[in-house]
Design brief:
Helix content is 17%, strand content 43%. By secondary structure, it is an alpha+beta fold. The protein has two domains: 200 residues, no CATH class; 166 residues, Immunoglobulin-like (Sandwich), CATH 2.60.40. The strands form two sheets. An eleven-stranded antiparallel sheet has the order 1-11-10-7-8-9-6-5-4-3-2, with helices on both faces. Strand 2 and strand 3 form a beta hairpin.
Length: 386
């Protein structure tokens, strides 16, 4: 349900810079952190709003989990892809233009928007723009990851807070990414005009490469029997058994498992107790976490301390949150950016990982063996790359 809460106060963000300048810095930071934006300098100057853009027309691309994805065009020039969902008759959009990701709501703000977004209790200062009808919040990679895994977002505009549920948003982001790689043309549709390059975020090893069909999953005879289950409309979970007690879930949007959404590996050590490792396909960030005693009762952000073997100096204390998987399972987790490989290396070389956390007013610990984690991570990377 959408609700508007009035009476809130706003704290100015970036008081000494214009929102346009902040957006330029955000674009540069995103390009440095995520190898990935394929836009040229000319494209970066050709920024577009993902809704109500003057002179634009939209073409339907596809649907997923209650979201409708469209591509935007200025004449014959491909401009953006965006996913929209109606909530109580009011739309919300998420998409990518020629420069960066945007979250859009039909509510007016100042031309240079400065406010905040809050996802499941985690708050970010935010900048953007408004055309007088829509407000466009410019998203950095941390915001995008949180929205992808979140349940609810609150957008602060002027003296109001707009609250929206995020059901299906992970699938919608994946569909937008697919739309971008196809230059806005749905499968089986006409190709884009010659010479047009999609403004699509991608990994450095894929930059400027033509889109390729996803490889089929390994056969049952190669790596254990695969079991396919439809867990939601157009969302399928493929389970495979790995070695040393590990398993893999590959989430796809088709039963043939050729359209991947997300991959994760996990090892269960008891009833609702286990370790999970996952990787975001777009940003290459690693999320590692667990199920443990009362971990699911934690709401919003918390503080997680972790270490390897019996060496507390080998770990760290970082912000944690309950990551909700596409099958609705919850894992108390930490997200490690792709620029930091330290945890990944330790997961593959140590024998045990221990987490310390607070739940139900008590200090708790949970330990998990890492035997077989090196091969499980290799399977995860292969799944993500395919």
């Amino acid at each position: 349900m959408t609700r508007v809460i009035t009476g809130g106060t706003m704290r100015p963000t970036f008081p000494h810079r214009s929102a346009r300048a902040i957006r330029s810095l955000a674009i540069l930071s995103a390009a440095m952190l995520m190898a990935g934006f394929a836009g040229t300098g000319a494209q970066a100057q050709d920024m577009r709003n993902i809704a109500n853009e003057k002179g634009s027309s939209e073409r339907p691309y596809g649907e997923t989990r209650g979201w409708t994805v469209s591509s935007g065009w200025i004449g014959q020039k491909f401009s953006y892809c965006a996913a929209e969902r109606l909530i109580d008759g009011e739309p919300m959009r998420i998409g990518f233009d020629n420069a960066q990701w945007q979250l859009a709501v039909p509510y007016p703000a100042a031309k240079d928007y400065e406010g905040a977004i809050t996802v499941d209790g985690r708050r970010w200062p935010a900048s953007g723009s408004s055309d007088g009808k829509w407000t466009f919040v410019w998203l950095d990679l941390g915001m995008l990851d949180s929205l992808r895994n979140g349940r609810e977002v609150i957008v602060d505009i002027k003296r109001a807070s707009i609250n929206k549920p995020l059901a299906g948003i992970a699938a919608s982001i994946t569909k937008v990414e697919e739309c971008l790689t196809r230059r806005g043309n749905p499968p089986g549709g006409a190709s884009a005009p010659q010479g047009q390059t999609p403004p699509v975020p991608m990994r450095q090893d894929q930059a400027m490469a033509p889109p390729q069909a996803a490889a089929p999953p390994p056969s049952a005879s190669q790596r254990g029997a695969a079991r396919v289950e439809e867990i939601a409309p157009n969302v399928f979970r493929v389970e495979r058994t790995l070695s040393d007690g590990w398993s893999m879930f590959r989430f796809t949007s088709d039963r043939a498992s050729r359209k991947p959404l997300q991959c994760m590996v996990f090892k269960m050590t008891g009833s609702e107790q286990g370790l999970r490792l996952g990787m975001d396909r777009a940003t290459r960030s690693l999320t590692f976490g667990f199920m443990g005693d009362a971990s699911a009762t934690i709401q919003g952000n918390t503080r997680l301390t972790y270490w390897f073997d019996n060496d507390r100096a080998s770990g760290a204390s970082k912000p944690g949150y309950n990551f909700v998987e596409l099958d609705t399972s919850e894992w108390l987790s930490i997200t490690q950016p792709s620029t930091d490989m330290s945890v990944q290396d330790k997961l593959m070389s140590f024998q045990k990982i221990t987490f310390s956390y607070s739940a139900e007013g008590k200090a708790k610990t949970a330990s998990f063996p890492l035997k077989g984690s090196d091969s499980a991570l290799k399977e995860l990377f292969e799944c993500v790359d395919h």
